[in-house]
Amino acid sequence: MAAPNTISIDKLVRLIGTPKCPVLVDVRGQDEFEADPHLIPSSLHCGFDEIADEMADRISDEILDAIAVVGPRSEIAAKLRTRLAGVASAVSLTHNRAPDPEHWSDVVAQLKRHHAAAPGIRRV
Fold it and tell me: Are 36 and 79 contained in the same domain?
């Protein structure tokens, strides 16, 4: 069952150009938008950086801490262990702005060191 705040692509395509169409925001960068400004019909263009800046003003530290592990790199492994204790036996680290696999190598090394000292936790 779909979440109440989602819409299928088929239904969205039928709604574009009608008064019932939801607000669509095109967050492509300015160069990409200028290359094809009509890629997303009836959308409002608001670049990613603008959205990110605005959302940063709207999301409190409490909300951010509830949905993300935030802190200095040296604290991330410990915060992950605390957050996931009894909930998850594996974790996947990604950074979509820096897809280099070495980006998280120091955090992974800290997690592996802890795993070696705490048997019973499955490492993937």
Answer: no
Bridge partners of residue 25, in order along the sequence: 44
**How many domains is the chain built from?**
2
Q: Are residues 68 and 103 in the same domain?
A: yes
Contact at 8 Å (CB) between 54 and 72? no
Residue 1: predicted pLDDT:
55
Q: Mind giving me the DSSP string for 30-74?
A: HHHHHH-TTSSTTPEE--HHHHHHHHHHHS-HHHHHHHS--S-HH
Q: Which domain holds residue 101?
A: 61-117
Place of tokens 């048997």: 119
Q: Are residues 45 and 81 in the same domain?
A: no
Long-range CB contact pairs, 43-49, < 8 A, 24+: none
Q: Is the pLDDT of residue 84 over 50?
A: yes
